[in-house]
Amino acid sequence: MTIADIKSAADSRMDQSLASLKTALARVRTGRANPALLDVVQVDYYGSMVPISQVANVSLLDARTISVQPWEKGMGAKIEKAIRESDLGLNPASMGELIRVPMPMMTEERRKELTKVVRSEGENAKVAIRNLRRDANEAVKKLVKDKLASEDEQKRAEAEIQKVTDKHIAEVDHIVAAKEQDLLAV
Q1: Shortest CA distance to 44 belongs to which of 85, 15, 94?
Q2: CB-CB neighbours of 25 under 10 Å
Q3: Cβ-based neighbours of 65, under 8 Å, separated by 6 or more
Q4: What is the pTM of this model?
Q5: Residues of 126-153 as b/e, b for ≥16 C-beta within 10 angstroms?
Q6: For the chain, where do the domains classified as CATH 3.30.1360.40 start and end?
Q7: Would you tell me how many other CB atoms lie within 10 Å of the CB of residue 162?
Q8: Region 73-82: what's the mean pLDDT?
Q9: Which parts of the sequence belong to the Ribosome recycling factor domain (predicted)?
């Protein structure tokens, strides 16, 4: 493994940490409806638990309502029950074959709690990115120890790894700030 391999591996793994953060923050409910909110809900489909998106079409009716259209007639009640029993605090309503999931208004207190959750997720992502930086730096040091790279190359590589880390940490801060602004907007 070369220094370039180590840097590119660290960069791609840091990108994965960012993707993981975005996925985690998509589940944090804002005042607006988001179909990704229901991705975590599992439905009993002939004895196996599957995500709602595999048994129904999930889309937006308007800015505050998610619609769930089951592909099979008998699944409506099961989907409605699964959404109600999830810990998302949603109350679905059936309208024939269509299930409407209105997003309740959020209180100021709940918004502040959710900003703490968002900051915590952001901090977890930063810790993961810093751990990846540490692992990359240790891999470079091992190359120097094994005499496969010089100490000058090590210094350059550590500086470049730090730049990549700083770029990803700034991106985490940007994502968290955007989500907080989204949460606090009434």
Answers
A1: 85
A2: 22
A3: 33, 100, 101, 102, 103
A4: 0.71
A5: bebbeebbeebbebbeebbeeeebeeee
A6: 35-102
A7: 13
A8: 88
A9: 21-184
Residue 27 confidence (pLDDT) above 90: no
Pair 83, 38: CB distance under 8 Å: yes
pLDDT of residue 151: 87
Q: Name the phi and psi angles at 99, rounded to 5.
A: -110, 120
**Per-residue pLDDT for 31 more than 70?**
no
Structure tokens that stand for 126 in this block: 């930063």
Which of the four pLDDT bands, split at 50, 70 and 90, describes residue 115?
Answer: confident
Domain 3-27+107-184 indexed as CATH 1.20.120.450: no
Which own/partner pairs from 70-77 qualify as long-range (CB within 8 Å, at least 24 positions apart)? Answer: 70/97, 70/99, 73/97, 75/43, 75/45
Q: Domain 35-102, what architecture? A: 2-Layer Sandwich (3.30)
